[in-house]
């Protein structure tokens, strides 16, 4: 993601990526550091200006009735769903999730899996960092396990 200095190069579709932030949307484990505006509506408006699209995605993540609320007043799961909606609307081809199921109940995890499948259908590359084996099993993707 380019958050730390390191060696090596990153390629996407055979082209060297110079500005990773232009290609990667990341959802961190602690989403509190990713929300900056005064309302859910303003937050999602940083991704798109299309009101109909924003309303549709907020309904899909069950946040439509909270669009005037301050993001900091949302629960942890609601904040994650807001960022999930934003990642889906993002035109960035790579989405990285760091522990996306922390703070989510089973129902919310099911919603997350549906969204992950929709994003892969859109052609997005999804990278998930997790310790949640139930979630891994239900995602049906390629699994790479790193062990020391």
TrEMBL record:
Pfam families: ABC_tran. Keywords: ATP-binding, Cell membrane, Membrane, Nucleotide-binding, Translocase, Transport. Residues 8-102 form the ABC transporter domain. It is a peripheral membrane protein. It is found in: Cell membrane. It comes from the Bacteria. GO terms for cellular component: ATP-binding cassette (ABC) transporter complex. Its main location: membrane. The keyword DNA damage does not apply. InterPro entries: ABC_transporter-like_ATP-bd, ECF_ABC_transporter_ATP-bd, P-loop_NTPase. One of its GO terms (molecular function) is ATPase-coupled transmembrane transporter activity. PANTHER family: ENERGY-COUPLING FACTOR TRANSPORTER ATP-BINDING PROTEIN ECFA2, HEAVY METAL TRANSPORTER. Belongs to the ABC transporter superfamily. This is ABC transporter domain-containing protein. The lineage of its organism: Bacteria, Bacillati, Bacillota, Clostridia, Peptostreptococcales.
